[in-house]
Amino acid sequence: MDDAGGAAKPDAVPDGSAAGGGAGPGGGAGGPGAAERAAPGLVAALLPRIPEMAAEAVSRLTADIPAYRLLPDSVLGGDLLANTEAVLKLFFTTVAEGRPPTEAELAAPVAWGAERARDGVPLEAVLRVYPLGASRAWELAAAGPDPAVDPYDLVTGLLAFLGEVMPKVAEAYLREQADLDWEQREHGRNLAGVLLAGRPARRAAERYGRTLAERYEVVVLRLPEAPGGATNRILRAVRSELDGNPEVLATFKGEGGVLLVPCGPDGTTRRLLARLDAAAALRCTAAAAVAEDHGSIPQAQAEASEVLSLAEDTGRPPGLYRLADLAVEYQLVRPGPARDALARVLAPLDDQPHLIATLREFIAAGYRRAEAATALTVHRNTLTYRLGRIRLLTGHDATDPTGARHLAASLTAYDAARRTGP
What we know:
Largest sheet: 5 strands, mixed
Strand order of the largest sheet: 2-3-1-4-5
Distance between the termini: 99 Å
Strand content: 5-15%
Number of helices: 19
Structural class: alpha+beta
Mean pLDDT: 79
């Protein structure tokens, strides 16, 4: 014992073992020595106060954490209170008996923590109940001139108990959350498939506990190209972001997908795609069309798909496109005599693909020779020679404003004719 009155824990151990000793007899929390010191009066003194301690912990949780205030009274006054009382009783009992809790004893609090995932309670809020209860247990057990239990035994028991309970609760919560995310994703995928097929989906939505919007913006999405296995990482990141937007229905196949975004304020879809770009760390290319009702969703998907193809065929940069952004190109690709006439302008270049590539890059570069030559990795003189060949074979000069417009329209029609056929 220290002369100044401070208790040095090693000297206080009756069997003379070192402080916090090993797992053998007389050592550390949970060993027989701890039980012998902690048991006298502990359960008798503190078990009657467990309801009070649990009520205080629940009161502090609901005051400090908004997520708990959203839970129904049946959970707050029933499950939450009962779980807190059970955990406190288990703690005091196991510390008094000098043993860790068994798997069977932990099953109930672990299951309770997992259930909160379905209530939407954040994991941090679920785990907060344990240090709060432990703090109150410490205050009551160590209070007064003659505490009910040796403070050293209590704190080591608290740490050992929390070390057993909290990781198991967190693991069960995360497993339940993963299952829930998978269920929600599958529900959204199934509903998207039903709506995109033009079939009624309200009954299926009710079965899944989902509410359908009256109007959707149909977004056809192309994930950015990435080397190696990075495409899978991008897809996981995009899906993870969409998991936080359960009102958005999504289905993916290959390197693309279709999103049904409820129509909202202007910019809703653009903001969503900006978050997807941030999640993917690369910009996606997408096209959108509004479906005024569920029956017009397939038509909106067809329009958005065609706009996306046009954006890619015409070399547009990644971003979100609508019909108004490519109205001229969209009209040019409609099957008919006008499209066929334009496509025939480039027929003389069929057997010279390098000239088609030159025209495509020259248009994409905004008719700037230096940029086009760099993109083609050729000398500017070579580019000039090729543009002359295009003029000679087609009768239109790509360096002249009138000829450039005609050749650009012809290239759009040429690509469309080869993509869809006559």
